[in-house]
Amino acid sequence: GEWGAAARVQLATSGTSSVTVEVPGPGALAGRVIGWSPTAGLAVRLSTLPGWKVRRLEVAADGTFELPGLPSGPAVLHVGPAGFSEAPLTREVQLRPGETTRVDVTL
């Protein structure tokens, strides 16, 4: 499944005070694979916490990729031919809530 959207919650307390809590939405990862031609048949795999959920997607013809709806925290990006078991490139990334983390990779 996907992770939740941004939320803004206002909590009323007794009297006239209130507390507003803003929770940022999920993050995303986007980038481009450089130095591999043709890019057809390339894929990215991202392993994220909690529980090390895995997301996969094929790289677009222009070498770009985007994975939306990701939780914040550490993740590991793997790039290689579609269906790979051993990735020629592995990179650790830090995903931030409500932001798109950009990672350009050269193979």
Query: What's the total number of strands?
Result: 9
Order of helices and strands: EEEEEEEEE
Poorly predicted sequence stretches spanning 5 or more consecutive residues: none
Helix content: under 10%
* Net shape: elongated
The span between the termini is 30 Å
How would you portray this structure in words?
This protein is mainly beta and 107 residues long. The protein contains no helices and 9 strands. It has strands at residues 7-12, 18-23, 27-34, 42-48, 53-58, 64-70, 73-81, 89-95, 100-106. The strands form 3 sheets. It has a 4-stranded antiparallel sheet with strand order 5-4-7-8, with no helix packed on it. It has a 3-stranded mixed sheet with strand order 6-3-9, with no helix packed on it. The radius of gyration is 18 Å and the shape is elongated. The protein starts with 6 loop residues before the first strand and ends with a strand.
Provide a concise account of the structure shown.
The protein is an all-beta fold. The chain has no helices and nine strands.
Which key terms come to mind for this protein?
about 110 residues, about 0% helix, about 60% strand, mainly beta, 4-stranded antiparallel sheet
Ordered list of secondary-structure elements with their pairings:
Elements: E1 7-12, E2 18-23, E3 27-34, E4 42-48, E5 53-58, E6 64-70, E7 73-81, E8 89-95, E9 100-106
